[in-house]
Design a protein that fits this description.
Layout lengths: L1 E6 L8 H15 L7 E4 L9 H10 L6 E3 L7 H7 L13 E5 L2 E5 L14 H11 L7 E4 L20 H8 L6 E4 L6 E5 L2 E5 L27 E7 L6 E6 L4
Helix pairs in contact: 2-3, 4-5
The chain binds fe (ii) ion (2 copies).
One fe (ii) ion binds next to loops.
C-alpha cells in the first residue's frame, strides 16, 4: 500500500502558534509504525512569502520521506524557489512541477496569480499540462494544486477559487487520473471535477466554517478548530481510499 499524507495551508508566519500547528501534524506522522510514502503540501506554505518563512517551512518539513510542495496565493515564487526544494524549470512564476515517487506521478500545478487571492491557469500552463498528461504512466497519477475549481457554497471563499475552470476541465477530462488534490479552502472536502475525484485537505492554520455552522458567528476562520490532514491510501487494483484526521494533540 502506498500512503500519501496530504497537508495544506500551514501559513507559517514566524509565530509559535502557526509553527506548533504544523509541528503537531508532523509529529503525528512521525509516530506512525510505518513511514508514509510521501508528504504533499498543497500551498499557502508561508503566510507572507518571506524568505524567513520558507526557512521555517523547510525546517519543519525536513523528513526522511519525499516532501512535495506547491504554491498557494500566500506564497511568492522567487523566495519559494530559493528556500524550498522544488523542481520546476525556469525562474519566477509559475512553479509547475512533475515529481515521481515510486510508481506514482504527481503533477504539481501553480494556480496562484501574483498579488491575487483567486486562482487561474494561463493558456501556456494548460498547454504544458496537456503535454505532461500525454506522457504514458503505469502507476497512480495525481494532479495537485492549491485553488479548488469547485464552489464550496461559501459566500466568501467562493470568490477566491480557481477561475475559468472549463478549459482546465477539458484538459483533465478522460485522463487516467487517480485523484485531484487541493487545499486553500481550509476544509476537508470531497467532490469531483472533470470526472475525477477532487479531494481537499483541511487547513492546518485554521478552519473556515460553513455560514450556518456555530463558529461562523466569530468570523471567516476558526483558529481554535484543530489542524488536520488527509491520508490517501493507494492499493493495487482497488479504489483510492481517503481518511481525514483532526490532530488534537502535539
Ligand atoms: Fe490558506
Ligand atoms: Fe489559499
Amino acid at each position: 500500500m502506498f500512503v500519501i499524507a496530504h497537508l495544506s495551508d500551514p501559513h507559517l508566519d514566524g509565530t509559535v502558534v502557526a509553527r506548533d500547528r504544523l509541528r503537531s501534524v508532523v509529529n503525528y506522522l512521525r509516530a506512525f509504525s510505518r513511514p508514509v510514502d510521501v508528504v504533499l503540501v498543497t500551498g499557502d506554505l508561508a503566510d507572507h512569502g518571506l524568505p524567513a518563512e520558507y526557512a521555517d517551512v523547510a525546517a519543519e518539513l525536513a523528513l526522511d520521506v519525499p516532501v512535495l510542495m506547491l504554491p498557494g496565493n500566500h506564497d511568492v515564487s522567487a523566495p519559494l524557489r530559493a528556500g524550498l526544494p522544488v523542481e520546476s524549470p525556469g525562474e519566477g512564476h509559475p512553479v509547475h512541477q512533475v515529481q515521481d515517487v515510486g510508481t506514482a506521478r504527481f503533477v504539481l500545478l501553480d494556480t496562484s496569480v501574483p498579488g491575487e487571492d483567486h486562482g487561474l491557469l494561463s493558456a501556456e500552463s494548460l498547454e504544458w499540462l496537456a503535454g505532461v498528461l500525454a506522457e504514458p504512466v503505469d502507476g497512480p497519477l495525481f494532479v495537485a494544486f492549491h485553488h479548488p475549481p469547485n464552489k464550496l457554497q461559501h459566500p466568501v471563499l467562493d470568490q477566491w477559487i480557481l477561475q475559468d475552470a472549463e478549459p482546465f476541465a477539458a484538459v483533465l477530462r478522460g485522463k487516467p487520473i487517480t485523484a485531484i488534490l487541493t487545499g486553500h479552502v481550509h476544509n476537508g472536502v470531497s467532490t469531483t471535477f472533470a470526472g475525477h475525484p477532487l479531494l481537499v485537505a483541511p487547513g492546518i492554520r485554521s478552519t473556515a466554517p460553513l455560514p450556518f455552522e456555530p463558529a461562523a458567528a466569530n468570523g471567516l476562520v476558526d483558529v481554535e478548530a484543530p489542524p488536520g490532514l488527509a491520508l490517501h491510501l493507494v492499493a493495487d487494483g482497488q479504489p483510492l481510499v481517503t481518511v481525514y484526521r483532526a490532530i488534537t494533540s502535539s
